[in-house]
Design a protein that fits this description.
Strand content: 15-25%
Strand order of the largest sheet: 1-2
Radius of gyration: 16 Å
Number of strands: 6
Largest sheet: 2 strands, antiparallel
Oligomer: single chain
Number of helices: 3
Shape: globular
Distance between the termini: 49 Å
Helix content: 25-40%
Protein backbone atom coordinates (compact mmCIF):
# COMPACT_ATOMS: atom_id res chain seq x y z
CA UNK A 1 0.00 0.00 0.00
CA UNK A 2 2.60 2.56 1.07
CA UNK A 3 4.62 2.05 -2.10
CA UNK A 4 1.61 3.35 -4.09
CA UNK A 5 1.14 6.49 -1.96
CA UNK A 6 2.73 9.65 -3.29
CA UNK A 7 4.95 11.68 -0.92
CA UNK A 8 2.45 14.56 -1.06
CA UNK A 9 -0.46 12.34 0.03
CA UNK A 10 1.27 10.66 2.96
CA UNK A 11 1.23 13.69 5.34
CA UNK A 12 -2.57 13.89 5.03
CA UNK A 13 -3.22 10.40 6.43
CA UNK A 14 -2.83 11.31 10.13
CA UNK A 15 -4.97 14.45 9.70
CA UNK A 16 -7.70 12.61 7.81
CA UNK A 17 -7.60 9.78 10.32
CA UNK A 18 -7.96 12.21 13.23
CA UNK A 19 -10.86 13.98 11.50
CA UNK A 20 -12.60 10.65 10.94
CA UNK A 21 -12.10 9.69 14.59
CA UNK A 22 -13.46 13.02 15.80
CA UNK A 23 -16.61 12.89 13.68
CA UNK A 24 -17.25 9.22 14.46
CA UNK A 25 -17.01 9.80 18.20
CA UNK A 26 -19.32 12.80 17.94
CA UNK A 27 -21.79 10.74 15.91
CA UNK A 28 -21.84 8.08 18.63
CA UNK A 29 -22.55 10.68 21.30
CA UNK A 30 -25.18 12.34 19.09
CA UNK A 31 -26.96 9.10 18.29
CA UNK A 32 -27.94 8.69 21.94
CA UNK A 33 -29.31 12.22 22.21
CA UNK A 34 -31.15 12.74 18.92
CA UNK A 35 -33.05 9.46 18.76
CA UNK A 36 -36.26 10.93 20.23
CA UNK A 37 -35.84 14.48 18.93
CA UNK A 38 -36.98 14.01 15.32
CA UNK A 39 -33.44 14.58 14.07
CA UNK A 40 -31.93 12.21 11.54
CA UNK A 41 -28.34 12.09 10.33
CA UNK A 42 -28.78 11.55 6.59
CA UNK A 43 -25.16 11.42 5.50
CA UNK A 44 -21.57 11.96 6.51
CA UNK A 45 -19.44 13.41 3.73
CA UNK A 46 -15.80 13.68 4.78
CA UNK A 47 -15.92 16.09 7.72
CA UNK A 48 -19.53 17.22 7.20
CA UNK A 49 -22.83 15.90 8.43
CA UNK A 50 -26.12 16.28 6.58
CA UNK A 51 -28.91 16.27 9.15
CA UNK A 52 -32.68 16.53 8.75
CA UNK A 53 -34.34 18.20 11.73
CA UNK A 54 -37.78 19.24 12.89
CA UNK A 55 -36.44 21.69 15.49
CA UNK A 56 -33.41 23.56 14.07
CA UNK A 57 -32.59 25.39 17.31
CA UNK A 58 -32.50 22.20 19.38
CA UNK A 59 -30.45 20.42 16.71
CA UNK A 60 -28.05 23.39 16.56
CA UNK A 61 -27.43 23.24 20.31
CA UNK A 62 -26.96 19.45 20.31
CA UNK A 63 -24.67 19.43 17.28
CA UNK A 64 -22.55 22.29 18.55
CA UNK A 65 -22.23 20.72 22.03
CA UNK A 66 -21.24 17.29 20.81
CA UNK A 67 -19.13 18.28 17.82
CA UNK A 68 -17.12 20.79 19.87
CA UNK A 69 -16.63 18.48 22.84
CA UNK A 70 -12.92 18.18 23.70
CA UNK A 71 -11.12 15.18 22.27
CA UNK A 72 -7.85 13.74 23.56
CA UNK A 73 -5.22 12.83 20.98
CA UNK A 74 -1.84 11.53 22.17
CA UNK A 75 -2.52 12.81 25.68
CA UNK A 76 -3.40 16.34 24.57
CA UNK A 77 -6.89 17.79 24.61
CA UNK A 78 -8.20 19.60 21.54
CA UNK A 79 -11.41 21.43 20.72
CA UNK A 80 -12.24 21.81 17.04
CA UNK A 81 -14.55 24.64 15.99
CA UNK A 82 -17.74 23.72 14.18
CA UNK A 83 -19.49 25.62 11.43
CA UNK A 84 -23.22 25.02 11.04
CA UNK A 85 -25.34 25.92 8.04
CA UNK A 86 -29.04 25.38 7.48
CA UNK A 87 -31.26 25.27 4.44
CA UNK A 88 -33.94 23.37 2.57
CA UNK A 89 -31.24 21.47 0.67
CA UNK A 90 -27.46 21.11 0.75
CA UNK A 91 -26.94 23.58 -2.09
CA UNK A 92 -28.95 26.45 -0.62
CA UNK A 93 -27.59 26.76 2.91
CA UNK A 94 -26.89 29.74 5.13
CA UNK A 95 -24.17 29.78 7.79
CA UNK A 96 -25.58 30.27 11.29
CA UNK A 97 -23.67 31.07 14.45
CA UNK A 98 -26.54 31.41 16.96
CA UNK A 99 -30.11 30.25 17.46
CA UNK A 100 -31.15 33.83 16.65
CA UNK A 101 -29.53 33.41 13.22
CA UNK A 102 -31.59 30.27 12.72
CA UNK A 103 -34.82 32.08 13.55
CA UNK A 104 -33.97 34.76 10.98
CA UNK A 105 -33.30 32.15 8.30
CA UNK A 106 -36.41 30.04 8.94
CA UNK A 107 -38.66 33.02 9.61
CA UNK A 108 -39.20 32.48 13.32
CA UNK A 109 -40.52 28.94 12.82
CA UNK A 110 -37.62 27.35 14.73
Amino acid sequence: FWDKVSPTEAPNFPIQGAAATIINRALLRLSHQIYWKETVVLAQVHDELVVEVSNPCLAFRLLRKEMEAPITINGKEFVFPVEISIGKNWKDTTHVATTEDIQKVVGGAA
